[in-house]
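Hello again, I could really use a second opinion on something today. Take your time with it, there's no hurry, and the full record follows here:

___
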Amino acid sequence: MALTADAFYETSVRGLEATPAANTVQIFAGALVAINAAGFATNWGYVAGNTFAGLNTRDVPGDTAATPPPEAEVNVSGIHLKKVSVATVASQADCGALVHATDENTLTLVAGANVDAVGQITRYYQGTICDVRLFIPAEYLGL
């Protein structure tokens, strides 16, 4: 139906999403975040049912019994992590490679079970040091 009066929506900044944290889970700032099969934010890991969300921006303790429950504030904009270590990177030839994560803080080129890549190498420096562009949730889902 067409508007017949002003409509004011509650809004938030694009690129940040708040999701209630899973019970008893501590998600630190800088952690890679998953949305688990129950719909709660949790630390990333090779867990079936996890969907990659992004990078947590502040420390949050999960307590689903709290009113309101604490929320993870997740940057879902596909940011670049600059000069991070990515296990098994060897050279400039790894630019463009898909990056996986074994947990909320460990990046690797080795794919794990149950989940897909969380980003892509965009720049190589030396050793295992690279820039990684994290996927936005839609990229992770292959949309």
Notes: The chain is about 5% helix and 40% strand. The helical segments are 137-140. The two ends are 29 Å apart (CA to CA).
